[in-house]
Amino acid sequence: MHTIRESKKLMEDAIDFFKTELKNIRTGRANPGMVENIQVEVYGTMMRVRDIATVSVPEPMQLLISPFDPSNGAHIAKGIEVANIGINPILEGNNMIRLNIPPMDGQMREKMIKNIGDLCEKTKVKIRQARKEANDGIKADKELPEDQKKKNEKDVQDLTDKYCGVADEMAKAKESEILSI
Q1: Among 24, 49, 158, 180, which lies 20 to 30 A Cα-Cα from 95?
Q2: Helix 4-23 with 106-140: angle, nearest 10 deg
Q3: How far apart are CA 174 and CA 181, in angstroms?
Q4: Do residues 78 and 39 both lie within one domain?
Q5: Long-range contact list for 99-103, CB < 8 A, 24+ apart?
């Protein structure tokens, strides 16, 4: 049984997750988010690139990864290859990895926009699930008067509309970013 406050938190979490996922979608420009969460095996365990290196953008179409421990350079390059993000890492010496971001063609742009749409819909499903759980809780509350139940259900619907709108706006902004490059 969810309260309105708990449902709002679930909706905010869905938006935060969507925001993180959007950072990982390629736009044609170099963006550290493209590689920061790639898992790399180092020291016998899997770690994210951002936990073992810094990622910088020296040029608009290039990423530079500097491992904290130079001996991890080859491991990071291999992890990026395994992640299959469509970018080949160039290992310079043993301590720098350079990624040249290729320009996106029309087909790749369409694929990225489709991914954004899919992610947006999944986010809105999570938001609607939070609404359902809140409404189920409101209906199950025997002590709440009927008019208060209706008001609470309307409040939950208003939250749902608000967060679905936020997801749509985020998706539109990312799509226009992809199309403008």
Answers
A1: 24
A2: 170
A3: 11
A4: yes
A5: 99/30, 99/35, 99/62, 99/63, 99/64, 99/65, 100/61, 100/62, 101/26, 101/28, 101/29, 101/30, 101/34, 101/61, 101/62, 101/63, 103/28, 103/61
Question: Does residue 159 contact residue 12 with C-beta atoms inside 8 Å?
Answer: no
Q: Are residues 146 and 122 in the same domain?
A: yes
Record the tokens describing residue 94, joined without a space: 């043993």
Q: Is the pLDDT of residue 48 over 60?
A: yes
Residue holding tokens 């309105």? 4
What pTM did the predictor assign?
A: 0.72
Q: Residue 152 has what DSSP assignment?
A: H
Gap between the Cα atoms of 61 and 173, Å rounded: 20
Q: 92 forms bridges with which residues in the sheet?
A: 96
Q: Are 53 and 96 found together in one domain? A: yes
95-142 pLDDT per residue, tens: 899 999 888 788 888 888 999 999 999 999 999 999 999 999 988 888
Provide the domain count of the chain: 2
Least Cα distance to 180 among 113, 116, 118 occurs for 113
Contact at 8 Å (CB) between 16 and 25?
Answer: no
Terminal alpha carbon distance of the chain? 46
CB atoms within 10 A of CB 77: 23
